Amino acid sequence: MVNKFEDELKQTALKVASAGKGILAADESIGTIGKRFAPIDVENNQENRRKYRQFLFETKGLSEYISGAILFEETLFDKTPEGKPLVEILKENDIIPGIKVDKGQASIMNAAEGETSTQGLDGLGARCAEYYKQGARFAKWRAVIKIDASTGAPTDLAIAEQTNGLARYASICQENGLVPIVEPEVLMDGDHSIEVSAEVTERVWHAQFKALADHKVLFEGILLKPNMVRSGADCAEPADMATVAAFTLRTLQRVVPPAVPGINFLSGGMSEEEATIALNEINRAPGKKPWNISFSYGRALQASVLQEWKGSDDNIPAAQETLLARSKANGEAQLGKYGGGAGGAAANTSTYQKNYSY
Ligand code: 13P
């Protein structure tokens, strides 16, 4: 079928994948943002969620480093007290609005313990059409894959289920004018080595691109949001950043077609500084890179900002300055030019949580 959105999808994907820019993932579900607000004593109500997202989007100069922002559904339809839609703020600031469309994870009964399938395909086409009308131009769907030698995870069943779900989601998005961010996240939970992570990640990505091809998804109109290839969070001898960069780049080169315009890594529990340095190393590593290799960070762009803000209006300018500084650092890392030391109150604090949900 000819897709009337084909040219637009390609343009949107290319614009998000601009040199020196990446994505701000601010799409925490209501439950998850509550977990972020709790340590800084901010009540998880609609007004505070709106206020927080509004000041993130109003940060002056943000679009120099941020090309797209992923929103939770509530934020896509939210307005300032003066009645201005938050999406308008993004558009005026030259940041493309995106929308998280998955509905979280449900367990797969006969897979390994704890393996899940991402929910949200029912009615997705109609939702995408609504989101497009409201101004969204790209979408996100997160599918998690666990590594656990004691249970046999990941199983072929879970990989098939998750990658096929992502491919079906991607085709529905493209049918409705949204660029799908394809996010198969191999979790960093576990004590496995980087070699095991590389093997599993490569296996998952091969299955992912086969599924995308089976669904005839337009590769020029997607963005890949993967994990970096790293040792497990509890690995006794974690690999250094240069090794992470080498394994990650090798895996990208082996699997991801050059037709895909952008790779936007998730931070997955790394500290802000670690996530920035890792991206910088990948972009500095020798070898072929036919894609814009960048970031789509949630935790690694917001940890210090939340610490600065603490729910007080007086702290908003300082919190915005921190967001700008961390975004700039990541923008430089996209170019392989980050010199270190961008700062931030929580820059070196791990954002890792076991069994994290978004
Ligand atoms: P983190 O950068 O916090 O891993 O999350 C990004 C994201 O959007 C996960 O779906």
From TrEMBL:
A single GO molecular-function term is:
fructose-bisphosphate aldolase activity
- Record carries keyword Oxidoreductase: no
So what EC number does this one have? 4.1.2.13
- Which SUPFAM superfamilies does this chain map to? Aldolase
- Catalytic function, reaction form: beta-D-fructose 1,6-bisphosphate = D-glyceraldehyde 3-phosphate + dihydroxyacetone phosphate
Supply the alphabetized keyword list: Glycolysis, Lyase, Schiff base
- Which InterPro entries would you find in this protein's record? Aldolase_I_AS, Aldolase_TIM, FBA_I
Which stretches are transmembrane?
none
Q: Specify the domain of life of the species encoding this protein.
A: Eukaryota
Please give the pathway this protein is involved in: Carbohydrate degradation; glycolysis; D-glyceraldehyde 3-phosphate and glycerone phosphate from D-glucose: step 4/4
Protein family membership? Belongs to the class I fructose-bisphosphate aldolase family.
Q: Which GO terms describe its biological process?
A: glycolytic process
- Gene3D superfamilies in the record: Aldolase class I
Q: What is this protein called?
A: Fructose-bisphosphate aldolase
